[in-house]
């Protein structure tokens, strides 16, 4: 085979992955009784297509006053219904599945739970059930501490006994652990202990904007050391500065400087009642971000990493650790 044909025949090299690690679109679909290909959202299918996002992490977020587990299940129902209804989107349960959806021109949906309060009653068993449905990412906390971990939203502490059991099961199942919203202590606990890479799906840097929701240099280095990634958020309050594309790119630059280019990803937080910075009002405008990084001298490989390949690497490693912990090929 000629080298070019060999290249084309190698799985994975054909697909140009652009991942967004945190989208609250399911909550909008629920509240507005809207459809994923409908109007008026920041990261529904029209915006994803326009901006090139082909791996969308869709978030199950149980509000504080809801029946948390029932609400998460309801949002999962909505995602599954859209998966059945729309040819353009497909639920992806592994990096290989995501890659194949993308190679066929579709958008891969990866399901995440934002806050382990969504497992308050059922814990490890509940995680197993959600995993069986296709859940592949678990945020330890939302804005309040829960029985598994402390939150940055209320000055919470580290991982609890129940939290360690949940983390161990996440590693075993191959569920990516997400420390966005977790307290500093819980973040360091998780990333220092986990056998698999951990991610901060939608968090920025204290170095560019000091904020309880942003990450210290120590946390950035810890996540990078473990092979994880950090998804930069486009919410103006977390970005700071002039709240424009350049201010978002400053967080990308900072992450690259402190944690290396391999730690960088995007986790916009679109549809999460955020105030997106000027120039990145919705997911259809993301080309402006990649252009800004290119203008700043990021290489094609670094941009490809930030757009999605870094996350694919981390997710693949999570899967490998799961296989090793289960003692064989994944079932
Ligand atoms: Zn959030």
Keywords:
two-stranded parallel sheet; 331 residues; alpha/beta; TIM Barrel; binds zinc ion; 13 helices
Task: Determine the structural class based on helices, strands and strand pairing.
Answer: alpha/beta
SSE pattern, N- to C-terminal: HEHHEHEHEHEHEHEHEHHEHH
Tell me the β content: 5-15%
N- and C-termini, Cα separation: 34 Å
- How large is the radius of gyration? 18 Å
Number of helices: 13
For CATH, the homologous superfamily is named as Metal-dependent hydrolases
Q: Which small-molecule ligands are present, each listed once?
A: zinc ion
CATH topology: TIM Barrel
Give the rounded overall mean pLDDT. 95
Itemize the secondary structure elements and their pairings:
Layout: H1 3-9, E1 19-23, H2 25-32, H3 45-51, E2 55-60, H4 68-85, E3 89-91, H5 95-103, E4 107-114, H6 123-133, E5 135-139, H7 161-173, E6 176-178, H8 184-193, E7 198-199, H9 217-225, E8 230-232, H10 236-239, H11 245-259, E9 264-266, H12 287-295, H13 300-326
Residues 114, 181, 202, 272 line the site of zinc ion (ZN).
